[in-house]
Automatic annotation (TrEMBL):
Pfam families, A to Z: Glutaredoxin
Occurrences of domain Glutaredoxin (ranges): 3-62
Family affiliation: Belongs to the glutaredoxin family.
GO MF annotations, alphabetized: glutathione disulfide oxidoreductase activity
Keyword Cell inner membrane: no
GO cellular component entries: cytoplasm
Biological process, per Gene Ontology: cellular response to oxidative stress
Keywords: Disulfide bond, Redox-active center
Species name: Halobacteriovorax marinus
SUPFAM superfamilies registered for this protein in UniProt: Thioredoxin-like
Protein name: Glutaredoxin domain-containing protein
Length: 78
């Protein structure tokens, strides 16, 4: 399973997702949008999601922190 998490500095929801992945020793790619407005704008346009984090699993957009929590509860991420 390939996980990518698009984040910004000082985002508590980003920290929550990353903490879960780190605590459970799940490998993921962290993409920091803090200093990359162009990438952030193109990501918002592509996903229709205007907040961070933005989580992708196997190159498919699955949503933000709430959606990630739902996947964890359903044992889709372990």
């Amino acid at each position: 399973m390939k996980i990518q998490v698009y984040v910004k500095d000082y985002c508590p929801y980003c920290n929550e997702v990353e903490s879960y992945l780190i605590d459970n020793k799940i490998e993921y790619e962290r993409v920091d949008l803090s200093d990359n407005a162009e990438l952030y704008m193109s990501l918002k346009k592509a996903t229709g999601h205007h907040t961070v984090p933005q989580v992708f699993i196997d190159d498919k957009f699955v949503g933000g922190a709430d959606d990630f929590r739902d996947l964890v509860r359903k044992d889709k991420i372990a």
